[in-house]
Specification:
2 helices, 17% strand, alpha+beta, 3 strands
Amino acid sequence: MARFPFNPNPNPKVDSACASYLAEEGLEGHVVFKWSTKTLVTTCGQGPKGIGVVNLVATEGYYRRHRLASLLDHEVLTLTLTLTLTLIGFVT
């Protein structure tokens, strides 16, 4: 699974679900996940070299199965759309 080396609160179930999601959507290598003790909600943005970054909340029990699936659909696919539109020059 693609994620930043520093992972202050890895949750194996969430990590596994995120990796599976990227594989199913064909996004491996295009999006990474970063656990953050400073964020209160999941956020996404563009990281180095145009890679999408999803910041995950490092609070125990924050994610539940259905919450995570909904969140991944929203954050990762919104990020993918934004990056695609930027690549084709529609968004600057």
